[in-house]
Give the backbone structure.
Amino acid sequence: MRFDAAIIGGGAAGNMAAWLLAKKGYRVVVLEKKGSIGKEVCGGLVSHRVLEMSKTEAVLNEIKGAYVYFPDGREICIGGDKTHAYVIDRQKFDFELAERAMAEGAIYKLKFAVKKISDDRIEGKEDIKFDYLIGADGTLSTVAKQFDMGSIEYINAVQGEAKIHADEDFVRVYINKSIAPGFFSWIIPDGEKARIGLGSSEKKLKQKIDNFAKMLNAEIKNVKGGIIPASIRKFFKHNVALIGDAAGQVKATSGGGIYASLLAANIMAENFPDFKKYEDEFMRKFGREIKKTILARKIFLKFDNEDFNYIADYIEKEVEIINRYGDIDYQAKVAKEIVKRHPAIAFYLLKKVIWR
Ligand SMILES: Cc1cc2nc3c(=O)[nH]c(=O)nc-3n(C[C@H](O)[C@H](O)[C@H](O)COP(=O)(O)OP(=O)(O)OC[C@H]3O[C@@H](n4cnc5c(N)ncnc54)[C@H](O)[C@@H]3O)c2cc1C
């Protein structure tokens, strides 16, 4: 059968795109290599925008704020005033989107690992012909590789579950090079258990998560690995587009990519099959924000624990500003407000970039 759009990958981006394209009347097929739909390793921390776009019923917990821990032992409490984020059941979330796509007529083929694509044909256990191809196949995208759409930098991550702080409405974030060099570690309560994980620029994370568990005095079970993009690829080439992690549409500072995946699927579907318009509009609405997080991460990588303690001084002073301007999807605004009030930070950062 010939399809208007063949989507590789049935994650957040692929399912959302399938739903929206099928709703517009396009013949859509989704090819997913796993035997079931639903990402296993994800913090599932999302903003209200994700709930609005997805109409999900997979919310498990509401988050009112965060405790941020710095290397010198300081704990800074942010938020607490209202709901700032939500914790979703990620498997249910992905499955809901896929169900909606199927209800609109999208065809799903599971256990279909795409390895080879030639011209307008995907070779696999059956041949699939397409007019347009959408790579929603995650950070290590086969589609991106096949069509030479650029390489990507990524952060290694691990996450498991434990019974600490499980029913609270605050996340905990540890910024400390000795725990999670090159990223941070987290505790995200989902109401019944807590998702505990860390990311790092290093590869071997077993020892790191064991050390974190020891520090928390927690037994972390079901630990699994994942990767988070930290740079972007080309979004399209001829009749091929990338969306979600495959395109690197993730905030490199926090690793959050669900909002960007849904936004990309929306913009791509709205403009389908004009992929140039998709790229332009995405860059205008969120691409610049992603680029700022990539730059911020580059500076972050030059920091040591003393620098984190230095930044903590200002965070402590400006909790009110963070509460007013903080937004988990659009993080640049709050950073700008703090630097505006304390230009010394800008000089400090510049010095770091130049000297290290
Ligand atoms: C540890 C961790 C914690 C995270 N926490 C958060 C968080 O709290 N909030 C947030 O917003 N984001 C978070 N993220 C990021 C978020 O999970 C991703 O940005 C999001 O899943 C991207 O969706 P996607 O559809 O692009 O990719 P995915 O959800 O990864 O889906 C890609 C799909 O493609 C399939 N696939 C891959 N290759 C092929 C192939 N060759 N053939 C067929 N199918 C294929 C895969 O099996 C998979 O189902 C986290 C990520 C990690 C690793």
Observations:
- Residues 46 and 123 are 36 Å apart (CA to CA).
